[in-house]
Amino acid sequence: MRQKTFFAILFVIFTFSVSAYAQPVDVEAEFGDGTRSLKNGAVLVDFGEIEGDYQEKSIEIVNHKPTKLKIRSIEFTGGGVGVSIVDDIIPGKSKKNIIISVYPNYIKEDEFTRDLLISTETHLRPGVVVVEETLYRIKGTIKR
After folding, report:
1. SS (H, E, C) 53-109
2. The total number of structural domains that make up the chain
3. Considering the entire predicted model, what is its pTM?
4. CA within 20 to 30 Å of 35's CA: 9, 29, 59, 88, which one?
């Protein structure tokens, strides 16, 4: 009987300790006009009216943690959009710019929306890796 009680208590302690590491983390992205929390959805990047061969906008990825943050992957829906990054590592407590480019010649519709998903990872301590995904909604109107 004591052995069953011991294992039941050990199981409960293990379950609570694992669930403490699995809590969601609030990610932030900063733009020139302020900071928006991504916890409740995508961050809007509005290009407005686009003329010419291409247009660029810069966004900042902010690492609030003391350890380095690595950009694991960047994925797009649809064509006509590109991204430029200089370094995929963001040191602790710092920011890096990512440049989003829109190429109107490769977009068929006049009003467009594209999704950009950026996946990052942070090593908080040995054996603990936090993977976060941030969704950016890119929209604009192409003036032809």
Report:
1. CCEEEEEEEEECCCCCEEEEEEEECCCCEEEECCCCEECCCEEEEEEEEECHHHCCC
2. 1
3. 0.69
4. 88
Q: What pLDDT, in 10s, does the model give residues 2-53?
A: 666 655 554 545 544 444 344 444 444 444 433 344 444 789 999 999 999 9
CA separation for the pair 54, 38 (Å, rounded): 27
Distance CA 119, CA 129 (A): 13
For the record, the structure tokens of 108 come out as 């068929």
In terms of Cα–Cα distance, which of 21, 120, 142, 110 is closest to 68?
120
In a domain, 99, yes or no: yes
Tokens of 6: 């011991």
> Is 94 a domain residue?
yes
Burial 37-64 (b: 16+ CB within 10 A, else e): ebeeeebebebeebeeeebebebbbbbe
Residue type, 104: P
CB 77 within 8 A of CB 137: no
